[in-house]
Give the backbone structure.
Amino acid sequence: MQRRQLLRVLGGTAIAAAGVGAAGIASLPTSMPAEAVAAWQGPGAYTGGDARRHVLSYAMLAPHAHNLQSWSVDLSEPDVIMLYCDLERLLPHTDPLSRQVLISHGTFLELLDLAARELGLRADIVLFPQGVFHAQALDARPVARIALSPQPGVARDPLFAHVRARHTNRSAYDATRLVPASAVDAMRRAAGPDVTVGFVGTDQTALAAQHREIAIQAWQIELTTPRTVMESMHLLRVGTAEVATHRDGISLLDPLPVALDRLGMLDRKAPPEGQNLEVQLKGFNASVATTPGFWWLNTANNTRAAQIAAGRAYVRAQLAATGLGLSFHPLSQALQEYPEQAALYQAIHALTGAASLGHTLQMWVRVGYAPAKGPSPRRPLQALIRS
Ligand SMILES: Cc1cc2nc3c(=O)[nH]c(=O)nc-3n(C[C@H](O)[C@H](O)[C@H](O)COP(=O)(O)O)c2cc1C
């Protein structure tokens, strides 16, 4: 959701009517609670002990659709991490095939691998050790079995340096600063050989305009389809106390919606409408209008293994971009497999060339320069460990 704009207009009116002054709103705590983002300090230097917990402390900083953090690990076998998907943390309406959830397990596995290398460990990753998930749904079987073993001389990866600085950035970008060809090349190299990537900059005016238009239309569909927008509404964490308690989902810390929520005037049980809907659409459109480039990643097929590979490649590209001072903001709506998006799904696959290759578009993002963005919440590591 485009949380910043949420209820700004409506909120002003309602709060005035409720007699809450600007001073009252200004006094509400709006910064991210320290405990919610404590994980971003990392585990510190490794001084012995269970290396699995050390590498997991980095893996859990991975990007995940809706910040759901559906990773669940079993540590009962020595030196082995068995990775499962927490089936309570899915997005059945916006991610009906759990494709994005599996991409989000790929991002986790990649950061885990990078962190293991830093410790001189080899991470042998076997995907789907008890069989591959069905194309339509996940189940209780593991996503991956990761065996860690010492390997002197294992290659470290310079991308690891950017793991704690990588953050999704949804704000306006500097429209006047184009993404240089050298950065596009660095992102392509970081993504690696398992995926096909593409890029369109605003110097390609007509093409970039088509990207913008699809992003805007797809966002409007998501926001005006009750069951898909409600999936986001249920994941809203409003105000510092809720953000600190849940440490997942969509953090909303702007003073107006927080004030409305305290007054019992923020209706999270109904889709946004009227002025509130308008404000959210305009906010998204304004951000998209500032975008100097669109970058995407597709895979030759849409197997579960390809989805994991897409996640690994995505986070590698984002790490490379982070190192170059560039921000990423995924635009997943048109890539989603629910019927209302079908026409835009086809349109973005055609526009990026994925359709003519018979490929599946796995990630599509805005990329550009923007003021730095702070970290998003993470649950404590212990919450991910099932045994
Ligand atoms: C598969 C996938 C899809 C995503 N889609 C969107 C999206 O459509 N819009 C968005 O704002 N962020 C999207 N994100 C970014 C997540 O919301 C973000 O990773 C999460 O909130 C954690 O924040 P962080 O990346 O700053 O750590 C996506 C991330 C992944 C891995």
Observations:
- Residues 99-118 form the longest helix (20 residues).
- Residues 63-67, 100, 103-104, 107, 167-168, 170, 329-332, 376 surround flavin mononucleotide (CB under 6 Å).
- The beta strands are 71-74, 80-85, 121-127, 144-150, 196-201, 236-238, 250-252, 293-299, 327-330, 360-368.
